[in-house]
Structures are given as structure tokens and as C-alpha cells.
Amino acid sequence: MSLRTFLGKQFIAVIQWNEDEDGVLAYRYPMQDMEIENGGQLTVRESQMAAFVNEGRIADIFRPGLYTLNTRNLPLLTDLMNWDKAFESPFKSDVYFFSTRLQIGQRWGTATPITIRDKEYGAVRLRGYGIYAYRVADPRAFYTSVSGTRDIYRVADLEGQLRETIIARMTDIFANSQVPFLDMAANQAALAQKIAEQVGPAFKALGLELNQLIVENLSLPDELQKILDQRIGMNMVGDLGRYAQFEAAQAIPIAAANEGGAAGVGVGLGAGITIAQTMMNAMKPAAPVAPLSAASAETKFCVECGHAIPRPAKFCPECGKPQQ
Fold first, then answer.
1. What is the spatial distance between Cα 278 and Cα 121, in angstroms, rounded to a whole number?
2. Mean pLDDT in each 10-residue stretch from start to end of the chain (324 residues)?
3. Strand pairing category for 10-15 and 34-44
């Protein structure tokens, strides 16, 4: 290295990351044409971790604290760079910071309904959504599997992967669940716990820790919800006779509000009573037909005046009309 090149280099004495914006998971400290001073200071704040990377290979990991950079604090990097135990010159290395803050309020949901088998309704298409929270727990795994050598890696870059992972595990759990759909609302917390247990290892493989997962809502598509509402309504009606009386009573104030004043009330009342009686009569069993009596078998009625006359009579004794 020439003297001019040496003098033109900039040496870094303090390395730190202030996290100027939210939603950043990994950040590479700018090192363009710069080297780190031997004995320089590394500041890692709470909710952060830092890693030194040499030629794409991750070396030393630093947790929150203030560090003096030397061979004692950089044992892995020292081995990778074949340094002597007491090197004194500046050195070149990439430094990555990782935010370990909880990334809260992350949303998940089914883009399309998923089909599950319900023991009461058979096949049911189900929708669900909720929130979850996670953080970076293992910078080495996260760097190796996710962020790599990118200058900055954001929450939004990982959102789709995590959401689809949650939905896949949710589908598996619901497919094997013995909980009927109508009981799922009362068991949302337990279902969320099962989903979290299944999703946790997948998050861990990416260097993440799933802190919380909540199922906010489980529902049916609109067309199936209407059918379910009708079925619930029929079960709630129970006694159709009493329901008809209730409907008639409900019609009275509506009729009274129409034009016509008292006449409207009368019409509404009459219509309500008629509806109730009609429905009640429709639900009653038909009355049995009485057999013909002996007297009715021996008489007939005049074709002219309708007077009852003996069946053999040729003329009506009341009006004199000939009979057939």
C-alpha cells in the first residue's frame, strides 16, 4: 500500500446504529473505502445485536453493550483472517446490525376460504384472520437463511413468507381438529396456541422467535353464512304457532303508522289476526268427516226451493216443483 493510498483511507473509531426508521430487521454499516481501527469502539444498544462478517462468512456476534475491538473480542474473525495474537493495524470487515425489537401488529389472514371437514356440517369453507408478533433471535441463522448480504432487510420483505407459513399450519390444524365450527369461536385461544406451536419451529429455522399469535375471527363465506343464519333462525323459532302470533303483533304498529289513522290500525289488526288464524289452522289436523246418518240417507232436497223432502217424492210439498 502506498503512502498516498494509506493517507486517503478513512478509519472508523466508533461503530453504532441509531435505527432511524421502523420496520428494519437487518442493516449493514456503511464501510465503503473505510477500515476499522484496532481498539475502536462498537456500541450495541438494547434491542440490537451485531455481527462481523469476513468475505461472506459470519464470525463474531455481539449482544447489547460497549466493546473495544481487538483480538480478544474478535476471536473468530482473528482466526478467519489469520491474524497474530497482537495485531495493531486497521482491518476491513463488514458489520451488520440486527433489530431484536418485537415486530408487533403483523397481520395474517386467508386470501381465499379454506375447505375443512366439519363433523356436523360436512365440508365447510372457512375464513380466518388475526395478528402475530415476532423478533430476530438468532442473527447467524437470520443472516445465513434470510437477509444475506443485502444492505438493508425490512419487515415487509418477510411478510408474505411468514403469513403463508401461518396459514399452511392453520389449515393442517383445522383439518385434523374435532371441534365443530359453531364451537370454534369459544375455542379461538386454544386454536391459536396450537397454531403457534406448529409455526414456532418454522420461525426458528429462519432465526426468528414467534412471540404471540392471535386468532381474531373465524367465519364462513357470505353465501354459507346466510344458510347458517336461516338454520339458526328456524331453531330459534321453535313453536310456529307462537311465532305466527308474534309476527301478527309486530304488524300492528306498522299498520298504525300508515295513512288512514284508526282505519289503518283496524286493517293492520285484522290482517295480523287473519294471518295468525290462517297459520294456526294450517297446522291443525284436519277434522274427520262424519259418516252419513240414516235420516240423511232417506231424504233429499227440492231442486227449486231446497226444502227437505222424502227421497221417493215426485213433487215438492212446499212449492210443488216436480222432482227428478
1. 34
2. 51 90 94 85 95 90 94 86 74 93 93 76 80 97 94 95 91 74 76 92 96 88 61 59 64 62 50 56 53 59 76 76 76
3. parallel
- In this structure, are residues 189 and 179 in contact, taking their beta carbons and an 8 Å threshold? no
- What are the structural domain ranges in the chain? 3-99, 103-224, 235-281
Dig out the grid coordinates for 254 from the structure.
306498522
Burial class (CB in 10 A: 0-12, 13-18, 19+), 273: middle
Interacting residues of 42 by C-beta distance below 8 A, sequence separation 6+: 15, 16, 50, 62, 66, 67, 68, 69, 95
Question: Are 118 and 181 spatial neighbours (Cβ–Cβ below 8 Å)?
Answer: yes
Q: Please report how the helices 155-176 and 188-205 are oriented relative to each other, as an axis angle in degrees rounded to 10.
A: 130
Q: Structure pTM?
A: 0.66
- Pick from 132, 113, 133: which is nearest to 123 by CA? 113
DSSP 158-216: HHHHHHHHHHHHHHHHHHH----HHHHGGGHHHHHHHHHHHHHHHHHHTTEEEEEEEEE
Angle made by CA atoms 75, 79, 83, in degrees to the nearest 5:
95
Measured distance CA(298)–CA(293) in Å, rounded: 9
Beta pairing partners, 57: 54
Using the structure block, give the residue that is written with the C-alpha cell 300492528.
Answer: 252
For the structural domain made of 103-224, what CATH number should be given?
3.30.479.30
